[in-house]
Amino acid sequence: MGFDFLGLSEDLLSVVEESGYTTPTPIQAKAIPAILQGRDILGIAQTGTGKTASFTLPMIDILSEGRARARMPRSLILEPTRELATQVSESFEKYGKKSKLTMALLIGGVAFKDQEQKLDRGVDVLIATPGRLMDHMQRGKVMLNGVEILVVDEADRMLDMGFIPDVEKICKAMPQKIQSLFFSATMAKEIKRLTDKFLKDPKEIEVSAPASTAQTITQRLCKIQGGEKEKRVALRQLLDSETIKNAIVFCNRKSVVKIVKKSLMVHGYSVGELHGDMAQSIRTETLAGFKNNDIQILVASDVAARGLDIPDVSHVFNFEIPNNPEDYIHRVGRTGRAGREGNAFTLTSPSERKALGFLIKFLGKEIELHELPGQEAKPQRSSSKPASKTASNPVDKNREAPQAKKQQDEKRPIESRNSKPREEKPSPRHNQQKDQIAFGMTDQVPAFLLRDEPKKK
Ligand code: AMP
Fold first, then answer.
1. Which of 43, 47, 294, 425 could staple 307 via S-S, CB 3.0–4.6 A?
2. Where residue 179 falls among pLDDT bands split at 50, 70, 90?
């Protein structure tokens, strides 16, 4: 079945065709006709399923009739993170290019003034993170009594981030008769309570089991004898032995993100960091650098794990077992997108035995072991991919293929590296080199970035 049977306008069908989509994804096939009929939706779907288009496309058609009034948006899309909100606004721009709809993006880390000016002119579509929206509401800059359609996206992520009370307050500020669309990868009790309260006879659409990863992703577990330092060595071994196009390295805490990023930088890798406490401009810049391959390795906290649509990530590395086993699915899901092959390596040390046990239980299966040189050999060798490959890194075609561990230490997947790295000790000389390759922040890390990540609720 093509898009023609879903009830979308000719304009939208032509935009969809230009986007290269020929067949609606399962959630699009089910949600679009129901939304066009005015029904509430409860979509149990992960990112990567095409859910953004499943709500943006029909919204564009529904909102094409009518006019926006100052400070009274006609629709509201709530997203848990600034990156997701930005991504959805990009989708609106792409799909809505033949419409005259106006849009505003209300996210933190950006000046209020521009956002207020847009609100004053009146917007059809408001895309916001809960915190910034509440700020604008409290300042009297936005009123929600003109909202006709509400989307709460990634509700489970909202829950993890402690946003549910804000979401509830925002829902209460809406008129009674609105169309509500809720999307969540899982249905925790708290989300069920919310949807029971705010959705009216919703059409329930479930498109993928939450505890599954794409078949195209090769998943491996590396047991590391030691702690964080040994893991950093192991990570470099993996980065050197795998054919890396680009990679995301996930850590559980911001403090570890910073240490791992700094360590990789000292060792000459092309690396950036992404976590919740960074200035928005630097987050956006870093993400753009990663998307256009200026940055090859992105070290990130879970803020980057869900939803980010970077179509072609070759490798994901879990520097630690995630605190929440579901985050494993989301992290690993950053690779192997849209049917591509992907690789996910999880590093684990003896102190994480309990967390590993939880993860295996959650996944319902073991993760195949991957041996690294220097790590205690298991009696039987796993049937996983060989520890080192001979193919050179596609990003740096001038590099020789790594052949032996000694040589591996001298190879880094970036062209700018020209000296042998030293073990974890930055020196002024290296800092100078860093300035050439650093993206975003260098050594001048502001104090606020060094604070510990707040505990998840
Ligand atoms: P999402 O789940 O909304 O993050 O979408 C994941 C990716 O799928 C995005 O890169 C979309 O551009 C892409 N996409 C959405 N709908 C389709 C479709 N019908 N056919 C092919 N790709 C799609």
1. 47
2. very high
Phi-psi region of 152 (alpha: psi -120 to 50; beta: other; left: phi over 0): beta
**Cα gap 260→251, rounded to integer Å:** 8
Query: At the fourth CATH level, which superfamily is domain 217-363?
Result: P-loop containing nucleotide triphosphate hydrolases (3.40.50.300)
Of 164, 144, 142, 168, the closest CA to residue 154 belongs to 164
Dump pLDDT digits (tens) for 400-439: 233 333 333 333 443 333 333 333 333 222 333 333 333 3
Cα separation, 407 vs 420, in Å, equals: 11
Q: Please count the other Cβ atoms lying within 10 Å of the Cβ belonging to residue 323.
A: 13
Residue 232 has pLDDT above 50, yes or no: yes
Distance 203 CA to ligand 1 centre (A): 21
Give nearest CA residue, ligand 1 atom 11. 50
Ligand 1 atom at shortest distance from the alpha carbon of 87: 4
Residue 338 Cα, ligand 1 centroid: separation in angstroms? 8
- How far apart CA 234 and CA 220 sit, in angstroms, is 13
pLDDT confidence of residue 361: 85
Q: 48 C-alpha vs ligand 1 centroid, how far in Å?
A: 6
CATH number of 3-206: 3.40.50.300
The confidence band for 449, taking pLDDT boundaries of 50, 70 and 90, is very low
Q: State pTM to two decimals.
A: 0.62
User: pLDDT value at position 437?
Assistant: 31
* Residue 454 or 279, more confident: 279
Minimum-distance ligand 1 atom for the alpha carbon of 21: 20
Q: What is the pLDDT of residue 306?
A: 63
User: What torsion do the CA atoms of 113, 63, 95, 306 make, to the nearest 10 degrees?
Assistant: 70
Q: Which atom of ligand 1 lies at the shortest distance from residue 52's CA?
A: 3
CATH 3.40.50.300 residue window(s) in the chain? 3-206, 217-363
Residue 124 has a pLDDT of: 97
Q: Best mutation site among 52, 91, 154 for ligand 1, i.e. most ligand atoms within 8 A of its Cβ?
A: 52
Q: For a pocket test of ligand 1, which of 4, 21, 154 has the largest count of ligand atoms closer than 8 A to its C-beta?
A: 21
Q: Whose CA is nearest to atom 5 of ligand 1?
A: 50
